[in-house]
Amino acid sequence: MSYAPQPLSDTHDLEQTKAWLRTYQRVRAATEAICAPLHKEDYMVQSMADVSPPKWHIAHVSWFFEAFILKPFQPGYQTLDPAYDHLFNSYYETHGVPFPRAERGAISRPTVDDVYCYRAHVDKAMQALLENPPEEHLPEILRRLELGLPHEQQHQELLLMDIKHILAQNPLCPAYRDDLAPGLAPTPEQEVPPLGWLDYPAGIREIGHDASRGGFAYDNEMGRHRQFVEAFQMADRPVTNGEFLAFMQAGGYANPEHWLADGWATVKAEGWRAPLYWVERDGVWHHYTLGGLVPVDLSAPVCHVSFFEADAYAQWAGARLPTEAEWETVAQDVPLTGNFVDQDHLQPVAAAKADGMPGQMFGDVWEWTGSAYRPYPGFRKLPGSLGEYNGKFMSGQMVLRGGCCATPADHIRATYRNFFPPEARWAFSGFRLARDPPTSKGMPMADHSEPRITLHPLSRRVRVLVDDSVIADTGNALELREKGYPPRRYLPRGDVAMAKLSVSHTVTHCPFKGDSTYYSLPDLSDIAWSYDHPIEEMQAIAGRLAFDGDKVTLQVE
Ligand SMILES: [Fe+2]
Known about the structure:
Number of strands: 22
Bound molecules: fe (ii) ion
Distance between the termini: 66 Å
Strand order of the largest sheet: 13-16-17-21-20-19-18
Radius of gyration: 27 Å
CATH topology of the largest domain: paralog of FGE (formylglycine-generating enzyme)
Strand content: 15-25%
Oligomer: single chain
Largest sheet: 7 strands, antiparallel
């Protein structure tokens, strides 16, 4: 899919140019539709240095067309105000002197109305240019237009990110919109499926944009090349809020063992204890969304986490983040569908079901990879000032893939490389896990220095009581010791009063043990669980029951 009416070629007719004009008008209108719910007071706020005021965004994207198309190629073009070339230049040092990024919120003039006049002025000139293009410059005009349109789409996503950050600073938690499309309501039947792992064999992969197939790509995707990718496993969906909450509850933010040094320093400096926008209200985690403050949907992909948090979770879970080559290997066979801005959720939503395919590769959340943002072999930046678009940022940033709920659907592709600094959290950024294939012996996970889980036969008698009624009594328990958790005793089923228990609807998944079934008493739910078909390394606990010490009395004598 592409926003382009048809691939560029060396021959152009008037119909093709008209189609480009219609596309230009559609993309420009989409920007204004995003800003329509804003009040004028919202347009001015710069809530942090990385956030630009909406007023600046809508002026800057107009400046891009003016600076790189109208001024060079429209004979007699008159700008509305020469000062705009400085105010709305983002970072193009070879074009002129950019206005300091962190001070964009200080520009109260031109006003919002002035900036909309500027947009209209540029649009009128662009229409005139495309309706009567100078023949000798048309190929270059269209090539720059082909960059200017996705540039504006990038800013549409940035606008939604920045509007969210701006409104989130307000203790009143105002909604950007109160008519967003709802996600799937989680019900027992539609609960997020257990995490599954998909196997990919080792092989030489073709990575990067395939120019022979046409279509637009940024310069940073160019240089299709071969890369050897070892066998790996990829999670069949992103990590959910519920899974991330388990990391939090296990003390994930308090244990330096999981964190990169820079990540741990950031956790301490920033006081992180949850993803951005999460707040605890009366013991329930809520998060700010573009629809206002709502309880966190535990089934939806976790969002607004940094690379550091994604990496720490992966360490804790005994897995890792995928490389971008692994991610692209998986994504290139996946249909380009998902929860994009067009779905109008403006928030990641739970997956409907698992079908054995990689789920939610596109849309919902940008997925952090473990790859640094660096040039591909053969990378050539664009000539002139536009060479500053991507290439000069190839230092100190990590790659994210797949687009998000704020990305236009026709803006994303499998080879698309987004990038942010590792501490950034205000993008719609989440992650999925990858891992090396399990080995035939020992724990399959990454921590080879010390097993995450060990099992120990317990010679002591273990009794389980509810009120004064004995539910289990055994001298043959297995004690499971897992990093970050209290020890659990798994009791043989024959020593448990199974007739008193019934299977509940609750099912959970642990990447280190497998799927667990839960058991309830008539008036006490989910007091015990068992792994009936655990992973190979955990066969010793198959069918045994462990009891929740918060709900029953556990006596170890
Ligand atoms: Fe820009």
